[in-house]
Write a structure and sequence with these properties.
Layout: E1 9-14, E2 18-23, E3 26-31, E4 37-40, E5 42-43, E6 46-47, E7 50-55, E8 61-65, E9 69-73, E10 82-84, E11 96-100, E12 103-107, E13 125-129, E14 132-136, E15 141-142, E16 158-163, E17 170-175, E18 179-184, E19 189-193, H1 200-207, E20 214-219, E21 225-229, E22 236-239, E23 245-248
Antiparallel strand pairs: 1-2, 2-3, 3-4, 5-6, 7-8, 8-9, 9-10, 11-12, 12-13, 13-14, 14-15, 16-17, 17-18, 18-19, 20-21, 21-22, 22-23
Length: 259
Amino acid sequence: FPVTIPYRVRSIWSNGEWFTISTNYGVALTNSSLTAILWESFIRGQFISPQICIFDQYGGYWIGDNDYGLAHCPDFSESQDRWIKPQGPAFASSLKVNAYNNNVWVASGGVGSDFQTNLWNSSGISGFVDNTWVNLSADTMDYPSTSFNSISPFFCDPMEVAITPSNNRVVYAASWEEGLMRVDLDVGNVQTLKGEEGTELYTNVWASPDFIACGAVTVDNDGVVWAAFSKIKYGIVAYLTSGRYVFFDTRSYLYRDWE
């Protein structure tokens, strides 16, 4: 084979016209005349770890990936590459599942067993809304007919998603990396709620982005968002429908959590 394969080989496939070698870090592909040689290790923003790669009768190839499922590449241009996933969450891990009015949201998690360490998990959150799965990763949104704004913040380590009772298409996410997040499916917007300028929450968010640590969130029947934070003295924060924040000092109840 005219390409050095420095990785562990998982499978070899050929149909007489095409020949592929799948490894733990990519796949090598060539035709029988060795005029088309390709090393594929990246598809649609994802590094791949293929188990097998086969060609169809149209000259396109299919990759069964160890981490992301099935990928289809109809040609070598990469412009039409796509992942084919079953209906459901976009990730295998699940820290918390919440449901309301036939809507279900799943948070993939993002904190170590010591409840201190960030995992930098970019899998994101997934929701079943109006009979459609919504998948929001760290910086991309997969939702029919919706293009989320380009300034939506990058966020990792989602801990929980709470559904607004009065408007199920607005949800709030607790992120152990970015803090409290607001997701509006109709507007197509992800917003970081940092508190008013000058408050400790606002200052702490900008000064120590790896210590925002919002671990839980819920929305009551009056539309008030309640969030639990670590690493600041205001362990409980209420976000009112007026946009105002109310901070509750928890230092006398939660030992050392605010330090």
